[in-house]
């Protein structure tokens, strides 16, 4: 429920946004806004950016020609009935095409209901705005477009005061059947999460969400804007995509997580795009009247200010990509979407990260590490990238079946669990280094070593071989014969020769050869199933071959 205070490491909001000249308002009100900011609710921890954020948003909305009514607690407590009267008055006009409701302050989720906490919310359970009812009754108010903006927590609380909230519906109950209302909602966070306000180096607080919201209209990218009646605007739908991408980045700079939640059903917009322009104070100092210049973002084109064209400021979107973004992109290539922005990453930036961290090289190294998964006791270890000097289990019995070549050919370790479900197995590599992994009964561990470090340890379910089973992958001819193969009675120490017996040209073919208690069986790779099957030999000691 509590918005947390953090030191912001990034730049402050552009002064341009709230420093634009006022736009004349017509006598007929077609667009209106109710702006609410509560910093000091009774019996709750105080906030530092709710009131200032509400003032900035109110000033900006007025600069867009929108009629604004403000309810902030810097002078007196904010009451739910006053907010209702303001909205009821706007709805009663019958001329509104768009109504905007902005709230900054404490928020909470109770059961299935969501609430904005006003000044006396914990003392009077009715003094909280029921967001759930706002969503329901705003759709019946007869205004074509209603926009709800919330820079507040949506977390839960076990306190009695919060759990006792009943809430107040700030929209009048109207039986409207003629006008369909398109409702657009912009929430700072998703259900169950806190929203944050941050402090810059100068000691000034801002809400992460509100600052991102206002920044969206200053020097936006061309892809964010559309032209309406000759004016570039930022449609709500594109604002939604911007916030979903930008807010987490802004939060990441302050080492917190904040993921917004938006739902846009209209094709409307709130504000116009300011391209490469800011309001700058004149050398003569602040204006004699108004007192709102000097970087306070309250200037509206008074005599003390002038407009200056400046180069676009760098966007927060230029934050360097990380290995997490690379992983998101790779997952998106196989149809797994973990982020809506995974297809918009710069290929050059991704390649740089790949090269720096060796993502592709390590991935290929791990994927190519394929060793046997059939062992006498259904438990074993395959080690790629190095030879083994020694293997020792605390309780399980280990035996090195093959030393490998220190590269792509695995060193194979057979494990007899001795009735144990798991055990610690120490591996000593040929350079004297080593590692300790878990030996799991019924599983085969695959250890990948790269440049003297363990790059990966993975497990897959093993198959029981029965007897002393060992297999090799060899190259043989498609029409060659394996009837006469020199061997020894010990199947774990043998020599194997595949001879080519054909006078015509043959095409090489892979075959898998099994040694099973001194019986040799040949299977064509085209007919061998993926899983290992026990050969059915007529005699345990007589050699036999099949093709």
Characterise the protein shown here:
By secondary structure, the chain is of the alpha/beta class. The chain folds into 4 domains: 4-309, Rossmann fold; 320-357, no CATH class; 370-464; 469-524, no CATH class. The protein contains 9 helices and 30 strands. The chain has helices at 50-63, 80-93, 131-138, 160-163, 208-215, 236-253, 323-332, 347-357, 359-367; strands at 4-7, 31-37, 67-72, 98-105, 107-110, 113-117, 128-130, 145-152, 182-187, 196-199, 205-207, 226-228, 231-235, 261-263, 269-272, 277-281, 305-309, 374-375, 380-384, 388-393, 397-402, 411-416, 422-429, 434-440, 443-450, 453-461, 463-464, 469-477, 508-516, 519-524. The strands form 9 sheets. It has a 6-stranded mixed beta sheet, sandwiched between helices. A 5-stranded mixed beta sheet has the order 21-22-19-25-26, with helices on one face. A hairpin with an 8-residue loop joins strand 21 (397-402) and strand 22. Helix 5 packs across helix 6 (236-253). The chain is elongated and about 90 Å long. The chain starts with a strand and ends in a 23-residue tail after the last strand.
Shape: elongated
The proportion of residues in beta strands is 25-35%
Strand order of the main beta sheet, please?
3-2-4-8-9-14
The CATH architecture category of the largest domain equals: 3-Layer(aba) Sandwich
Number of strands: 30
The name of the CATH topology of the largest domain is Rossmann fold
Write down the CATH class of the largest domain: Alpha Beta
Q: Count up the domains.
A: 4
Mean pLDDT: 76
Q: Could you name the ranges where pLDDT drops below 50 across 5 or more consecutive residues?
A: 4-25, 278-314, 466-547
Q: Could you tell me the radius of gyration in angstroms?
A: 35 Å
Largest sheet entry: 6 strands, mixed
How many alpha or pi helices? 9
Give the class from helix and strand content and strand pairing: alpha/beta
> Helical amount among residues, as a percent range?
10-25%
Give the N-to-C terminal Cα separation: 72 Å
């Amino acid at each position: 429920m509590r918005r947390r205070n953090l030191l912001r490491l990034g730049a402050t909001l552009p002064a341009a946004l709230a420093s634009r000249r006022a736009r004349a308002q017509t006598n007929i009100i077609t667009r209106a806004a109710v702006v609410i900011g509560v910093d000091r609710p009774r019996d709750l921890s105080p906030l530092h950016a709710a009131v200032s954020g509400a003032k900035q948003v109110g000033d900006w909305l007025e600069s867009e020609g929108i009629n604004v009514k403000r309810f902030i607690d810097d002078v007196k407590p904010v009451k739910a009935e006053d907010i209702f009267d303001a909205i009821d008055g706007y709805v009663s006009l019958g001329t509104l095409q768009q109504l905007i409701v902005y709230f900054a302050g404490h928020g909470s989720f109770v059961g299935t209901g969501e609430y904005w906490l006003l000044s006396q919310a914990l003392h009077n359970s009715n003094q909280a705005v029921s967001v759930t009812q706002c969503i329901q009754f705003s759709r019946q108010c007869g205004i074509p477009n209603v926009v709800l903006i919330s820079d507040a927590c949506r977390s839960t609380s076990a306190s009695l005061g919060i759990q006792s909230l009943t809430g107040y519906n700030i929209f009048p109950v109207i039986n409207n059947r003629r006008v369909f209302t398109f409702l657009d909602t912009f929430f700072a966070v998703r259900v169950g999460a806190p929203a944050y306000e941050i402090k810059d180096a100068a000691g000034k607080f801002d809400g992460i969400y509100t600052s991102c919201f206002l920044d969206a209209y200053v020097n936006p990218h061309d892809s964010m804007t559309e032209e309406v009646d000759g004016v570039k605007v930022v449609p709500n739908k594109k604002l939604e995509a911007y916030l979903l991408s930008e807010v987490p980045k802004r939060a990441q700079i302050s080492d917190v997580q904040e993921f917004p939640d938006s739902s846009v059903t209209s094709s409307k917009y709130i504000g116009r795009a300011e391209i490469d322009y800011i309001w700058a104070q004149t050398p003569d100092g602040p204006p004699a009247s108004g007192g709102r210049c000097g970087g306070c973002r309250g200037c509206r084109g008074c005599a003390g200010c002038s407009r200056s064209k400046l180069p676009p400021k760098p966007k927060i979107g230029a934050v360097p990509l990380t290995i997490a973004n690379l992983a998101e992109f790779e997952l998106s290539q196989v149809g797994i979407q973990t982020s809506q922005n995974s297809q918009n990453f710069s290929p050059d930036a991704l390649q740089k990260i790949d090269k720096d961290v060796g993502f592709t090289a390590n991935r290929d190294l791990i994927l190519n590490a394929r060793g046997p998964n059939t062992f006498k006791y259904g438990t074993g270890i395959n080690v790629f990238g190095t030879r083994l000097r020694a293997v020792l289990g605390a309780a399980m019995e280990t035996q090195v079946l093959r030393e490998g070549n220190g590269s792509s050919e695995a060193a194979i370790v057979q494990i007899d669990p001795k009735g144990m479900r798991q055990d610690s197995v120490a591996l000593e590599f040929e350079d004297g280094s080593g590692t300790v992994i878990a030996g799991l009964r019924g599983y085969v561990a695959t250890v990948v070593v790269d440049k003297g470090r363990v790059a990966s340890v993975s497990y897959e379910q093993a198959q029981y071989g029965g007897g002393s089973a060992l297999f090799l992958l060899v190259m043989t001819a498609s029409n060659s014969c394996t009837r006469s193969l020199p061997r020894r009675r010990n199947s774990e120490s043998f020599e194997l020769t595949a001879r080519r017996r054909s006078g015509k040209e043959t095409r090489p073919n892979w075959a898998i050869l099994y040694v099973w208690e001194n019986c040799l069986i040949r299977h064509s790779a085209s007919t061998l199933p993926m899983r290992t099957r026990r050969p059915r030999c007529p005699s345990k000691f007589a050699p036999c071959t099949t093709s």
